[in-house]
Amino acid sequence: MTTIPFEARRFQSTAAYYTRYRVPYPDQLIGQVAKRAGLVAGERVLDLGCGPGQLGIAFARLAGATVTGLDPEPEMLEAARTDAAAVGVNVTFIKGSSYDLGPRFAPLNMTVMGRSFHWMDRLETLKALDEITVTDGCVVLFGDRHISSTPDWRQAVNEIAESFAPERNANRERRKSPDWIEHESILLRSPFGDLERISVVRERKLCLDDIVGRAFSTSVTSPQALGAKTAAFEAELRATLLKLSPEGSFLEVVEIGGLIARRG
């Protein structure tokens, strides 16, 4: 089974772009997941691989959860603390990763992960969570699925990323390889094998800055990864996008969902 090697600072330099340009998790989705999972105000939630804390902050704000966020990137944690303070919620953010899971986080009612599970040793992470999660607790994987882009800018971004950052792009391509096992199959093999998906579909209008910012929010084409090639990457991306849409206007349709995994 393919496992992507752990790199603690993989997302260095992306924090300034992540919250602003990644597809957001709608409040409606957070509320539906919290209700379906039976989360009660005050119960303990771990936002694992929290990044800038979008999920953890949302569950604290909307569900009244007692939230801890765990991430290996200091810049992400700093952004998360700033954003939590801005909306007036109290979330504890700790430097660390899935390899640091242990009794100090117990007992957990829910663990949420937003676009982070694929960076982990997934079976070992679920085994560790099983030991610190209450009997009726759950794990929820959040993410977004691209449905359509008009014009299709995503292929252009991927081709330019391959040109400017081939080694980084190879990690992303691993998830398309024949030996990559999808999250659902991993969960079905784990103690958390009772699966239910909740999702919403949204149409989003994007401009050039939105697409460039999203590219900079990824580990493949972050400013840190691109280094001296950052300006050239941005210039080529903007020129390519303007060829696709001279007005600089794009639409995307995405499904944003949470996969709730309970014990069977």
Written description of the protein model:
With 264 residues, the protein is an alpha/beta fold. The chain is built from eleven helices and seven strands. The chain has helices at residues 15-21, 27-37, 54-63, 74-87, 122-132, 154-164, 166-174, 183-189, 208-216, 223-226, 230-244; strands at 44-48, 66-71, 92-95, 108-114, 133-150, 194-207, 249-262. Strands 3-2-1-4-5-7-6 form a seven-stranded mixed sheet. Helix 3 links the parallel strand 1 and strand 2. The longest helix is centred in the last third of the chain and has 15 residues, at 230-244. The radius of gyration is 18 Å and the shape is globular. The chain starts with 14 loop residues before the first helix and ends with a strand. The model has no long low-confidence stretch (mean pLDDT 94).
What is the end-to-end distance? 23 Å
- The secondary structure category is alpha/beta
Mean pLDDT over the full residue set: 94
Radius of gyration: 18 Å
**Continuous helix count:** 11
Describe the sheet with the most strands: 7 strands, mixed
| Helix share bin | 40-55%
Question: What's the overall geometry?
Answer: globular
Model regions low in confidence, pLDDT < 50 over at least 5 residues: none
One letter per element, helices H and strands E, the order comes to: HHEHEHEEHEHHHEHHHE
What distinguishing features does this structure have?
alpha/beta; seven-stranded mixed sheet; 11 helices
